[in-house]
Amino acid sequence: MKNNGVLFLDMKPDNGNYEPLIGDVILEQSQAAVDTLGHRLIPVTA
Questions:
Q1: What is the pLDDT of residue 22?
Q2: Contact 27/33 with Cβ under 8 angstroms?
Q3: Which residues contact 42 (CB under 8 A, 6 or more apart)?
């Protein structure tokens, strides 16, 4: 069994850009995608 955690952090942009901190493997395993406009995770349907 794999144990993957999720952590949400308040961030300040570096030169106006945010640095993504979430890994592709975590997103793939959770079947979620990042809604960059709404700043949320959304379910992925195949």
A1: 64
A2: yes
A3: 32, 33, 34, 35
